[in-house]
Write a structure and sequence with these properties.
It is globular, with a radius of gyration of 11 Å. The chain has strands spanning 7-12, 19-20, 25-31, 34-39, 44-49, 56-57, 64-67. 0% of the residues lie in helices and 49% in strands. By secondary structure, the protein is mainly beta.
């Protein structure tokens, strides 16, 4: 799962090892006072979460890995 836009990570909804379904929120990014919830594109198990709250991310940066 990659960042659709540059911004700051403001919320984490899941932790590695959690199971997710399509559309489950994973992280929220904020840019220019607008928030964007990044959701799981596939069902599976979250095996990696590569960001922390307060971290700045670039567009396309890897946020998480979901294993089907």
């Amino acid at each position: 799962v990659s960042a659709p836009m540059p911004g700051a990570v403001v919320s984490l909804y899941r932790q590695p090892g959690d199971t997710v379904d399509i559309g489950d929120p994973i992280v929220t990014l904020e840019a220019m006072k607008m928030e964007h919830v990044v959701k799981a594109p596939i069902p599976g198990r979250l095996v990696e979460l590569d960001v922390r709250v307060g971290q700045q991310v670039a567009r396309g940066q890897l946020l998480a890995i979901i294993e089907p």
